[in-house]
From TrEMBL:
Domain Sigma-54 factor interaction: 135-364
Protein name (record): Sigma-54-dependent Fis family transcriptional regulator
PTM sites of type 4-aspartylphosphate: D58
Family annotation (CDD domains): AAA
Keywords carried by this UniProt record: ATP-binding, Nucleotide-binding, Phosphoprotein, Transcription, Transcription regulation, Two-component regulatory system
Taxonomy of the source species: Bacteria, Pseudomonadati, Pseudomonadota, Alphaproteobacteria, Hyphomicrobiales
Every Response regulatory domain range: 7-123
Length: 446
């Protein structure tokens, strides 16, 4: 199978290597944009990343290294999958980049056929990965959710997104919206818990002039302004019961009246709702109409808490760090390994929102070049300083190794040779580590 039709960004400073890659890829039917420095690539691709199906990036460039480029790309919208091209000595860094969500790495010299199949397997659009893309996260759970939402995007049925506060329900709703709609379609978000109950109805449905004291002119509500886009009702569990009846009618009749009005207004948007609490307790006494529940929960999605998605903790930390560094104009080169380990051991009650806020504050206050545990958790000195609950370094290292090996084995369906390659170690070393750390694999042919 050929990867024809793909648009590929190539960041490679070596004129011979770059020239020959462009030639070979163009022969395969790809369009290639070639940049010879990191700055040139970032400048030229800024705001245009959505046009690229894949980026091939050398790790060692004259002005910056692959990691710096990747962190910059992560801060942009629509980051395409990135495959790194690496010399033998840079494999450790390539593996680190994979932890941040890079698609793959190939070591020089490489066979072109194998290279082409990696391009084909990882490029977006033309050959979408069966388990979803990484806009919502790189963890298996979020990839599955992305795939589910892509399926849901094919219909108009209501979607109910559940999950803890700050887990990314609104981000998922926007992702669904963007899958279906062009730039012009509106995404109207209403936080039902933040608007006083007596105002909520007129905020959603609008009102006519004179409908109540203070209604000095006609007001169009969120339902009308959503047009044929999305009406996102966040914290629907906090909606007062009388209004729940009106939302039920809105869904069933696909039309409504403005408050104080006679005119029937058609409703063309898709309804997406979200809640952090259980809407039904089976007894019908949870303060939420069960008929409405069944209407809004036709297509349910549950976002798992951040603490259950370690891969996303690492990647989102890198993304938020890149964004915060730019905002604060500070030189913070990255997150230290110890900080990553501390973050992986924390339970993140505020989920992604808390992670974003902690990284933002950490970057603003960081004294050194790397984000340290004390920058991320200044309020929890006991958990990172000497004393009770302080894990020895060997334990932290074992935990990290165990997690990464299990991940590599999952990625390669238990194939030891492949997993060892991903981890940048020999097969024998991998076996030894697996035995010591008590990791088993189902595959027997290894
Ligand atoms: N996958 C993600 N990528 C980048 N940022 C994310 C992601 N998920 C969540 N965030 C960020 O975390 C914060 C909380 O996300 P969001 O508002 O979607 O959560 P929520 O579950 O809707 O929260 P709430 O229950 O409070 O309404 C936002 O700043 C959002 O940008």
């Amino acid at each position: 199978m050929r990867p024809d039709g793909l648009t590929i960004g190539l960041i490679e400073d070596d004129p011979v290597m770059g020239g020959s890659l462009v030639q070979r890829l163009e022969l395969e039917g790809c369009a290639v944009r070639w940049w010879q420095t990191g700055q040139e690539a970032l400048f030229a691709s800024s705001g245009k990343l959505a046009d690229l199906d894949l980026v091939l990036c050398d790790i060692r460039l004259p002005d910056m290294d692959g990691e710096e480029i990747y962190r910059n790309l992560l801060g942009e919208r629509s980051t395409p999958p990135v495959i790194f091209i690496t010399g033998y000595g840079e494999i450790g860094q390539a593996v680190r980049l994979m932890r941040l969500g890079a698609a793959d790495y190939v070591t020089k010299p490489f066979g072109f056929d194998d290279f082409l199949s990696r391009i084909r397997d990882n490029a977006r659009n033309r050959t979408p990965a069966p388990d979803g893309d990484t806009v919502l996260g790189v963890s298996p759970a979020m990839r599955k959710i992305a795939a589910l939402l892509r399926q849901f995007a094919r219909s108009d049925l209501p979607v109910l997104i559940t999950g803890e506060t700050g887990a990314g329900k609104e981000i998922a709703a926007r992702y669904l919206h963007n899958l279906r709609n062009g730039e012009d379609a509106r995404f109207m978000a209403v936080n039902c818990a933040a608007i006083p109950p007596d105002l909520l109805e007129s905020e959603i449905f609008g009102h006519e002039k004179g409908a109540f004291t203070g209604a000095t002119k006609r007001h169009l509500g969120y339902a009308e302004r959503a047009g044929s886009g999305t009406l996102f009702l966040d914290e629907i569990g906090d909606m007062p019961l009388p209004l729940q009846a009106k939302i039920l009618r809105l869904i069933e009749d696909r039309c409504f009246h403005r408050v104080g009005g006679e005119e029937i207004v058609p409703f063309n948007a898709r309804i997406v709702t979200a809640t952090h609490r259980k809407l039904t307790d089976g007894s019908g006494n949870a303060g939420f109409r069960s008929d409405l529940y069944f209407r809004i929960a036709v297509l349910p999605v549950d976002i798992p808490p951040l603490s259950e998605r370690p891969e996303d903790i690492i990647r989102l930390m890198a993304i938020f760090l890149a964004e915060a560094v730019e905002r604060h104009d500070k030189i913070v080169r990255g997150v230290s390994s110890l900080t990553e380990e501390t973050a992986l051991g924390y339970d993140w009650p505020g989920n992604v929102r808390e992670l974003r806020n902690r990284v933002e504050r950490g970057v603003a206050l960081a004294a050194g070049e790397w984000l340290m545990p004390a920058d991320l958790f200044p309020d929890r000195p006991g958990s990172i300083g000497p004393g009770i609950g302080f894990a020895p370094l060997s334990e932290i290292r074992d935990d990290a190794e165990r997690r990464q090996i299990v991940r590599a084995l999952a990625e390669t369906s238990g194939h030891i040779q492949e997993a060892a390659r991903l981890l940048g170690i020999s097969r024998t070393t991998l076996w030894e580590k697996m035995t010591r750390l008590g990791i088993k694999t189902e595959r027997s042919e290894n």
